[in-house]
Design goal:
The protein is α/β, with parallel strands linked by helices. It is built from eleven helices and nine strands. One of its GO terms (molecular function) is hydrolase activity.
């Protein structure tokens, strides 16, 4: 699958960034521009997200294969992979499937463990927006308030709302809501591998996030024995948005090491 991507920078190591569920490459533009001063940065839209193609097949195996296809098509050698949340699981799956196709990996606020479904209310909210008759983003925000109390999360979701010229300029989602809803349990699946991956891996977590717990380090170590774990103060699950400067400093140290 040919993924849509944005690119910044023309020098240094190649860095490929994958967003999380309901996200897109847009979410990483600010970080990407800063990193692009020293590196060549590719920010991808994963399948069923952003401007990349849609598909009824949505799981970590195919998303890892999408990433491999992107790397091969663009003749990128030994990239540094960065993935947040769902994107973190994609890069971990990639590392297990193609252990010689990358140099280092950064996994942001996710572990390879099983996570129970916890996006049900958001999916209900997205489905409740009557796109055909929607008049404005403000109206969509009011509808989402019944399902998601956080203004920040709602604005993050509303970044996916656009006027589709192929549908008479009606509002549309840039995420494939029906397919994501159907496969939302897959997003929480535990990752398994017969062999450990020896390449360097940095896990970054937010201090107030619950996604990586102390007991998860055993599973991380089994799959990625050459790992480090950094905790960023004052950050939650969206570490890179909560503390961008600190995030860039931690990531840059790892890339240079």
């Amino acid at each position: 699958m040919k993924l849509f991507f944005r690119k910044t920078g023309e020098s240094g190591s190649d860095i490929i960034i994958l967003h999380g569920i309901f996200g897109s490459s847009d979410n990483w533009l600010t970080i990407g521009k800063v990193l692009g001063e020293h590196y060549t940065v590719y920010m991808l839209d994963q399948r069923n997200h952003g401007q990349s193609p849609r598909s009824d097949v949505f799981n970590y195996e195919v998303m890892a294969a999408d990433l491999k296809e992107f790397i091969d098509e663009n003749a990128i050698e030994n990239p540094i992979l960065v993935g947040h949340s769902m994107g973190g699981k994609v890069v971990m799956q990639f590392a297990m499937n193609y252990p010689d196709a990358f140099a280092k990996m950064v996994v942001v606020d996710i572990a390879p463990k099983f996570y129970p479904v916890h996006h049900s209310m958001i999916l209900q909210g997205l489905a409740a927006v009557d796109l055909k008759n929607l008049k404005s983003r403000t109206e969509a925000n009011e509808i989402l308030k019944r399902f998601e109390e956080s203004e920040g999360v709602r604005q993050f979701l509303l970044k996916n709302l656009w006027r589709n010229p192929e549908k008479n300029n009606e509002f549309d989602w840039r995420i494939n809501v029906p397919v994501i809803a159907k496969n939302i349990d897959v997003v929480g699946h535990e990752l398994e591998n017969e062999h450990s991956v020896s390449k360097p891996v940095l896990f970054i977590r937010g201090v107030s996030s619950h996604y990586i717990q102390p007991e998860d380090e055993r599973k991380i170590w089994e799959l990625f024995p050459n790992y480090e774990l950094e905790t960023i103060e004052g950050a939650g699950h969206w570490v890179q948005a909560d503390k961008p400067q600190e995030f860039i400093e931690v990531l840059s140290r790892f890339v240079k090491a």
